[in-house]
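Course assignment 3, question 2. Fill in each field.
Student: A.L.
Task: Predict the tertiary structure for the chain below.
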Amino acid sequence: MSSNNSLDFIHFVIKENILKFGSFKVKSGRYSPYFFNSGLFNNGISISSLANFYAKTLLHSNIKFDVLFGPAYKGIPLVTATAMMLGNFNKISKSNYSIGFAFNRKEEKNYGEKGLIIGHPLKGKVVIVDDVITAGNSVAKSIEMIRSYGAEPVAVLIAIDRMERYKINNILSKNSASEEITKIYGIPVLSIASILDILQIIKNDKILMKHYNSIIAYLLKYGIVHQK
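Answer field:
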């Protein structure tokens, strides 16, 4: 069942025109009837609102963590804003716990402070913060990177779970990308919302309901679930 946080999030991204409907070529090469563009969180108010949803989702999971990690490039503002929002929550609760965060460079720096990681040292329990998971390749690289520093990845936190299968040697996977991450690496994928939340909103919207059937058709072809 959808939570208030999930549905509020979908209402928010639709209102801000960050979640769009139509026909969009996505990273997988498919033409999707909807597209979530986290790059449009490009001002202080919108990124703060987004971080609030991320922080609430993470806290409600009750997962214990020490550091947040954002994979370059889109993960960088997401992890920064989420750490700041968690810090604000701690001020309200009068906690002295400050949330450390880090992100990576695309290429390792061999001068100055050197290295691949910027920010807090990767140690203890680490949560990866990103926008969406398509094929899971970038998340897999982040997990391996975190482990190479001796830290323990404990969860992946994303905005929307598309709940899609992906191709392995031209064969559709049995599980979604999120499920594969959990199956292979043994860590949960937390999402603020999913495609099911999007469907729940648009099927009751007089303007957006015209996109409902195309999303259902897309899920029947590529997804692991669908609604009637």
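Instructor remarks: The mean pLDDT is 89. The first strand starts at residue 19 and ends at 25.
Grade: pending
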